[in-house]
Amino acid sequence: MIRIQNLHKSLHGGGHKVRIINDLDLHIPAGQFIAITGPSGSGKSTLLGLMAGLDSPTNGDVFLDGKDLTQLDENQLARLRGQKVGIIFQSFYLIPTLTAHENVSIPSELSSGNHSEEKAKEALKSVDLSHRLNHYPRQLSGGEQQRLAVARAFVNNPKLILADEPTGNLDSANSEIIIELLEKLHHQHGVTLVLVTHELDIASRAERIIGLEDGRIVSDTAS
Ligand SMILES: Nc1ncnc2c1ncn2[C@@H]1O[C@H](COP(=O)(O)OP(=O)(O)OP(=O)(O)O)[C@@H](O)[C@H]1O
Ligand SMILES: [Mg+2]
């Protein structure tokens, strides 16, 4: 599903070059549930952004389902993401002026337009937000906002879900709802799941755990 080769990402910060991803190779087979762990600043979110084609590497290649992301333009990348990728960001990026129902309708409206209202309602039901369809993000609790972000990520039946600390701001009950939902998508629909998390008990539910430090993979274990 994802093949990363000789990946480098550097940025200029404070007048000098900062290496954020440092010669990283990684293959994630289709259908795998993989967790990425590592200290704050180790490059986890950057790596996820590169996998989604939201960010471009300084060097190296990222193949998503056989397509070399570095060879695609913005429109092609957006289309590919719309068809195949669901992303749950570390900060949710919900659209504040749209209701819960509208936020979740957007991805399917953009990609197919068919039954997007119904699909959005179903997705919201599965994250237990049926009673909040017409609420705006600011009227939702942190846990509800995160559940909304998860519903938006899977409403289009993506083959790949990239989740950046999806339980980071949640209490244990809400964390469990989110993780069970992601596990269900993985088990029942064969979704490839890449989950960034600080929490070891959550990481240990994945089939494979990668440890990142200073933009390099320092461990890669089956769990
Ligand atoms: N636009 C930028 N310019 C300069 N440095 C940046 C920029 N974005 C990120 N960095 C640096 O890149 C490094 C990796 O950031 P990244 O967000 O990928 O870390 P992370 O592992 O996701 O951390 P966290 O667990 O805190 O979310 C950090 O040291 C960060 O300061
Ligand atoms: Mg991060």
Strand content: 25-35%
Helical stretch tally: 7
Taken from the alpha-carbon principal axes, the silhouette is globular
Order of strands, main sheet, comes to 6-7-8-3-9-10
| pLDDT averaged residue by residue | 93
Bound molecules: adenosine-5'-triphosphate, magnesium ion
Q: Helicity level, as a percent range?
A: 25-40%
> How many domains?
1
Using only CA atoms, what is the Rg?
A: 17 Å
Q: Please outline the major beta sheet.
A: 6 strands, mixed
User: Which CATH class?
Assistant: Alpha Beta
Q: How many β strands by DSSP?
A: 10
Sum this structure up briefly.
The chain has 223 residues and is an alpha/beta fold. 35% of the residues lie in helices and 29% in strands. It has a single domain (30-58, 72-222), classed as 3-Layer(aba) Sandwich (Rossmann fold).
Structure report:
By secondary structure, this protein is α/β, with parallel strands linked by helices. It has a single domain (about 30-60, about 70-220), classed as Rossmann fold (3-Layer(aba) Sandwich), CATH 3.40.50. Helix content is about 35%, strand content about 30%. The protein has 7 helices and 10 strands. A hairpin with a 2-residue loop joins strand 9 and strand 10. Helix 3 (about 100-110) crosses helix 4 and helix 4 packs across helix 5. The relative contact order is 0.19. The model has no long low-confidence stretch (mean pLDDT about 95). The chain binds adenosine-5'-triphosphate (ATP) and magnesium ion.
